[in-house]
Protein 1
Amino acid sequence: MTRRVGEHAIVLGAGVSGLLAARVLADFYDRVTLVERDALGAGGPRKGVPQGFHAHSLLPRGLQILEELFPGLTEEMVAEGAVPYEMIVHLRMIFGGHEFARMPTGEVGVSSTRPFLESHILRRVRELRNVVTADRSQVSGLMTRDGRVVGARIADDDGERELPADLVVDAMGRGGRTLAWLESMGFDRPEEETIKVEIAYATWYLRLPKGALDKDRMIILGTYPGQPKGAALCAVEGDRWLVTLGGHDGMRPPTDPEGFFAWLDEAAPADVSAAVRAAEPLGEIGTARIPTSTRRRYERLSRFPEGLLVTGDAICSFNPVYGQGMAVGGLYAIAMRDCLRDGTGDLARRYFAAAAKALDPAWQLSSGADLALRQAEAARTPMARMLNAYIGRLQRVAARDPRVAVAFTRVSGLLDPPAALMRPAVLWRALRG
Ligand SMILES: Cc1cc2nc3c(=O)[nH]c(=O)nc-3n(C[C@H](O)[C@H](O)[C@H](O)COP(=O)(O)OP(=O)(O)OC[C@H]3O[C@@H](n4cnc5c(N)ncnc54)[C@H](O)[C@@H]3O)c2cc1C
């Protein structure tokens, strides 16, 4: 059930998290303005989202949320070229060097490029009668009164203007401006947890020979201690495959074709690397570097300005190899919706608490795995070491036991909490296996 809580809300940034926040806020505010620096709607890669060139898999929980917020979106995307797949029939996962056994689960995913996904969400957001998009508009600052946020200052080709609002949401990604704004308003900055991951990506779009990878639609080759070379291969719209190589701790994937092939020869099964060698290249190899994984603990602040919230990567930007960012952006949107159902009293405190709770499982999984990699800098606790040893065992068993593979996939897809891996049925299979 929704209720009106205010006249105007502004969302700063039209990445996936901003779009989902706008969708939710449209149920509670008379008007929502979505402000974005880039021109929107062209459907291709955007300057403000350079990561959109690289593999962007949407975890199953993320797809569930999209369907909840935009019923029929999956079908629409598939009709327009996104590639549907069934977990874990069409999904080939190699973790810890073990190729997981497969079985039907009925759980469906869609694979596409990030610009394709984003443009489909944007289209649905634009169909909402009370959402206005202000693109090619730079957020230059906040409007504040008596320690409360009362709007934002927006600059575009016509100059700067003030946009009063009851609520402003920072969805500007990793470079979100809230930290600086808090300081300038005399509030504390949140504590930050940072893990140095030094991830480097190299991505190539290819057309594979027909049937080269049989029923596979997505192939994930995880890195693990001793093997810093990983990759993700995704069938995407336009009858293409998007192949992203990923290295951690300073290991940089090559950007020349022969080096690219050689990386896969080493990291991938022979049929995968042969399929890529036989493919038709569709452009240049592009790169990205992600130095850290950072979580900002807004929920621990004792004071936060009224009229302001934060979402998406501006709260937590993950090591991207786990593919969690967009799904977690969806979880924040659901947390925002649930909090607004109880009105706007004490909204920031309630929202950040709910967002942190929603984020915890994803952070636990990714930070745990990051710390398990030898070169990760942060300290490793005995509990984390024990958990990582158990995960290693699960991955070995998952190569033979599809039920363990399903349990693992559901947890990493954020469908089940990490504790599901400790359920007696899984524990028993892992120990027996
Ligand atoms: C290389 C890489 C690979 C990734 N792979 C995956 C994956 O496989 N799966 C997954 O789920 N996630 C992945 N992620 C994470 C994912 O990209 C983000 O979590 C996701 O985009 C949600 O972020 P966001 O909407 O908070 O921010 P962003 O997507 O970064 O969007 C921020 C928006 O704010 C706009 N903006 C910024 N400053 C201003 C300003 N001053 N004024 C107006 N607008 C502004 C930007 O133009 C942009 O549109 C990956 C990230 C990287 C870096």
Protein 2
Amino acid sequence: MSIQHRSLVLNQNYEPLNVCSVKRAFLLVFSGKAEVLEIGEEPIYGVGNAEYDTPSVIRLQYFVRRPTPQRRLSRREVFARDAHTCQYCGRHSNLTLDHVIPRHKGGPHTWDNLTTACQKCNHQKGGRTPQEAKMPLITKPRRPSVNPAELFIMYLDNYNEWEPFLTGWVKKANQEMKYAS
Ligand SMILES: [Zn+2]
């Protein structure tokens, strides 16, 4: 058993927000700003060796507004978003980055104008739009949402009890996305 050093902080709506020291989590709970959802394996000791439950997962009592974390736009990230699949023919090899609306036609270098194309398709499409080339896209490119679990996944080896809170949020986020589209 290892001594717990970190606590997972959830927003009021249960969205995983950040990771803080156990001491800070304890102060948040103690001052009434957060509630404990899950306690750690080991207690912490206060003045006079008093034992306290370790707050392992806490939830803020107020809502923190923060910008949605953004994924950096890069070739690697676009390939990952498209599951390393050519979005014209479904091949998985010789992948390149394609501007759906070509740059010389004013197509921007953005998430929703970049897609994964194999060399063959990219060459065949040339400087044309998918409509002009009669090459429909398998999926419409869009900015990928950041999966909050990914931001904290490296902690799961040490803090098993965080898992339901991370995966639970992902499921909820996916469901909301389904209803929204
Ligand atoms: Zn292809």
